[in-house]
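User: Can you help me understand a structure? I only have the sequence.
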Amino acid sequence: MHKNILCVSCICIVLFSIVSLIPQAHADGFAQENLPAASVGYRKISLFVKINPPIITSETSQDRYLLFRWFDANTNQTILHTTFLVEVTRGNQFVLRSLFHTHSGIITLKLTPSNDPQSWKIIGTPQPFLDRYMYIPQNSDTIDLVAPMLGVGGLYHIYVTLITIDNDQNIFQPIDAPRFEPALSVGDVSNHTVTYQGNLYNTTIISYYDKITDFNFDQTTKQFLWSMPFDWNTTRIASQQVFVHEEVRIPKSFKEFSNTPTYAASVNGNPITGRGIIVDPYSLSDKVIAHILLNKDDILKLAKNATSETNSMNFTLVPTAANVKTSSSIVTDFGGLEIKLGWSSAEITANSKNNLNLTFSDVFTEQRLTGDVIYDLKILDKEGSTVLMESNQTAKGGTDSRLINLPSNGIYSILVNVKSIINNDLADTSRSGVARGNLVIPTVTNQETVPEFPAVTIPILVGFVASLILGIIKNQAYR
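Assistant: Let's start by predicting it. Here is the structure, written out as tokens:
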């Protein structure tokens, strides 16, 4: 740390000349993130950042904001008197760039989207600092501003450089200043009317990563097709936390598409299988929701087939004949967690106690969580009725075991709702999310196939606690 105020002009020149910051952490595909900590002396300094709302439509009327909280990762104590430079880009365009200071260590930038990409207006109290003006909230932790951001969905890159902590004059030398680079996503909603055999069906696609382009529906193959911008640079992907979530909502009245429990999906011609595609017929009374979920490992495998000219993810989704298998691994829709499901017996039987082992891991590091995971376990039958509900269970050190007794043969939906992770008696709710999969009784030993559903049966694969991300990402994501 450097306390000599005479050097501030030089520091200012360096800090404000930064356009491409050296990133300390990335989080592509999320609306909020607790970023990995930077070492500052004996402390581990971390940043929690959150964009709200996580989904934006033309009807969105709720407040839009960007929240920052600085804290000690070892104690979860908020760090006071922080000054930091914020630069936000969408695509190749700056949408915000300014210095902010918060005495409390928490600041909320309440945003009014503008149509002017060249300027923004900060409605706050400016104070001279580093030959510039920094903005300090008054009487609350909120600053109002007008900027060309959060008016549309997509991927927002947020470059943050920490300048002071603990004391307004404790200024980092530029070479020592901790830098963070979250890339947070706002869901882009795309509505389309498709035609099949002379009938019209309103279909919605929500991309939780970036904006949707080139939507099409092929009547001959009953195939949905759409694209999304994506940078396939493997060095970039390997160094970041990346998660892609696409959600397709199909009317149940479109029976030629919805009357099947399984779908096939692909990205750039590569099939997506297993936990990568999940179907939810419950959350909406009139629509089936298909989720495509790609974690970092999935994307790195896909990147091997991408050429230097590839700059997008090109998706397809099509109904298939029933082929439901018991899930051995499921991934949360938000929060970046994988849950491995292990059964005590190769064949799961009805009306008997079957031991289910759950192991919670980080999908990015592939390491088992060492904290205690608080979760709900829910199982639904093929009619969507709850046959098992166990709330506020604890997976000590990331593992747990539950005895499951289900009443009859058939296909069940299994849901694990991760509520918080506890380390050092401190609860972190920023990685909350729902993982869902399926359970087949009796299980075929090789888990290849199960009998097809009758054509008249309404398909049931997976239940979903809440399909809207707003219901999953709670406001108490930070203490």
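Now, to help you interpret it: Residues 1-26, 444-479 have pLDDT under 50 and may be disordered. Residues 8-16 form the longest helix (9 residues). Let me know which part you'd like to focus on.
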